[in-house]
Automatic annotation (TrEMBL):
CDD domains: metallo-hydrolase-like_MBL-fold (cd06262). The keyword Zinc applies. Its cofactor is Zn(2+). This is Hydroxyacylglutathione hydrolase like protein. Residues 12-191 form the Metallo-beta-lactamase domain. One of its GO terms (molecular function) is hydrolase activity. InterPro entries: MBL_Glyoxalase_II, Metallo-B-lactamas, RibonucZ/Hydroxyglut_hydro.
């Protein structure tokens, strides 16, 4: 299995493509530049099986509809943000200068911690609210990597000043779920470079003394 990081849009939101040797793949957080993303997938002869969203802020969902329609795949999202895809006032796009963003509702709504298998890809799901109420982290155990969205970054954590954000809740999510993963697990965040659980435990100033 391989993962590819594709920063997209004005906020350089990381879209991740998790692919197998047979060309099947999972698309995480297609945030913008849908035409470019679809072209990249076609050029690399990849066949998406699903779109998995870590949360539904506008910079993570801008290309959802283009990917869904191009490949006829389902979209997964936590139930706490079920209305966010269709509502610019909820996903935040109405507040910023990038234009209002919306799409059709998710095909599957996820609920609390559970496992999820799509094709050959299996994930452990952690509900990690704090940055947003429906944030999900997807742990791909086979590759020892967690797709963490805007929950945890290299040397930082997600912002909590947007509607539905909660600083204490975010810290609890990180400590109760992400920091229980193996220290060598790779953290694939919504922005910026990848990191490792062990490195963040030792060096992240936001986690010290919690």
């Amino acid at each position: 299995m391989n993962w590819t990081q594709l920063p997209l849009g004005p906020l350089q939101t990381n879209c991740y493509i998790l692919s197998g040797e047979d060309g099947e793949c999972i698309v995480f957080d297609p945030g913008a530049e849908g035409e470019k993303l679809v072209q990249w997938l076609n050029e690399n002869r990849l066949q998406p099986l699903a779109v998995l969203l870590t949360h539904a802020h506008f910079d993570h969902i801008g290309a959802v509809e283009q990917v869904r329609q191009a490949f006829n795949v389902p979209v997964y999202l936590h139930k706490e943000e079920a209305e966010w895809l269709t509502d610019p006032s909820l996903n935040g796009s109405a507040r910023f200068q990038f234009g209002e963003i919306s799409s059709q509702p998710a095909d599957h709504l996820l609920d609390e911690e559970e496992s999820l298998t799509i094709g050959r890809f299996s994930f452990r799901l952690f509900h990690t609210p704090g940055h947003s109420p429906g944030s999900i982290s997807y742990f791909f155990e086979e590759g020892n990597a967690v797709f963490a969205g805007d929950t945890l970054f290299m040397g930082s954590i997600g912002r909590t000043d947007l509607p539905g954000g909660n600083h204490e809740q975010l810290l609890q999510s990180i400590h109760n779920h992400l920091l229980t993963l193996p220290e060598e697990a790779i953290v694939l965040p919504g922005h910026g470079p990848a990191t490792m659980i062990g490195d963040e435990m030792e060096r992240n100033p936001f986690l010290n003394g919690f």
